[in-house]
Amino acid sequence: MDAIFWNDSHREAFTAVPAKVRRKESSSDGVKPAEKMKKQASNAGEDRAMLLGFTMMGLSVLMFFLLGITILKPFMLSVWNEESNCTIIQADIMEDWVDCSFTCGVDCHGQSKYPCLQVLVNVSNSGQSAVLHYNEEAVQVNPKCFYIPRCQRDKNDLLDGVMNIKEYFDRKNDTPFLCFHRPESKPEDVIFIKKYDRSVVFHCLFWPSLMLLGGALIVGMVKLTQHLSLLCKVYCSASKEELGSVASRPDSQQSKTKKEDKCLRWRLNSQSMSNAPFN
């Protein structure tokens, strides 16, 4: 009976120790679910940040393309580049009104007339008189009038708007102001403002550039974070290998085996003492 109980207890002790060792190995080698979820969340956040950065960069390039065609190209090809000072000579409303057409709905069209305001100025650079226009488009549409008002059915509203502009120029009778002209091709015409000046071009280029810089900064920060995390993993793995090499030395293994032998002997003695009354 003693031999049977001793053999049974001996087998139980030898089978119990590897089970605990296996549980420790599985718990130490396996990755915790919380760490897996954290890693997946970080990867999803990095992917979204990268997508946001590349989207911002793509939209900025598209804005550069559209604004370059619609604004930057006319600004670069503009021929009204020479600045001068102009002084009002006279501002009169011509007797002959100009025909125009208006729309008041989907199937509603009509004909009307608008008053033509003619403004004569003296150009300081050339010393000659010229006709003042609002911008480049006014020169092409009607070279005799200052600007082209929006065509309306009510002629009184059109006349009131033109009279307000005439009073403005009458108050600036002797005050010089900035104007733009083309002395080589059209010395008889000057414009009051340019449709696309430097401030408009600056704002059109500033916001796409800011968006492009922001997208590149987001992508760069994500790449830097990934690089730092990779360096951290390499450092942690190297430190674990160093600890493993220290733990695998002979003296540490001997001390570990001695502890396991003592634990096994204590278990065997305790089990044999508990089974002693059955002898």
UniProtKB/TrEMBL annotation:
The chain crosses the membrane at residues 49-72, 200-222. It is a multi-pass membrane protein. It comes from the Eukaryota. It is found in: Membrane. InterPro entries: K_chnl_Ca-activ_BK_bsu (IPR003930). GO terms for molecular function: calcium-activated potassium channel activity. The keyword Repeat does not apply. Keywords: Glycoprotein, Ion channel, Ion transport, Membrane, Transmembrane, Transmembrane helix, Transport. One of its GO terms (cellular component) is membrane. PANTHER family: CALCIUM-ACTIVATED POTASSIUM CHANNEL SUBUNIT BETA, CALCIUM-ACTIVATED POTASSIUM CHANNEL SUBUNIT BETA-3. This is Calcium-activated potassium channel subunit beta-3 isoform X5. It comes from Xenopus tropicalis (Western clawed frog).
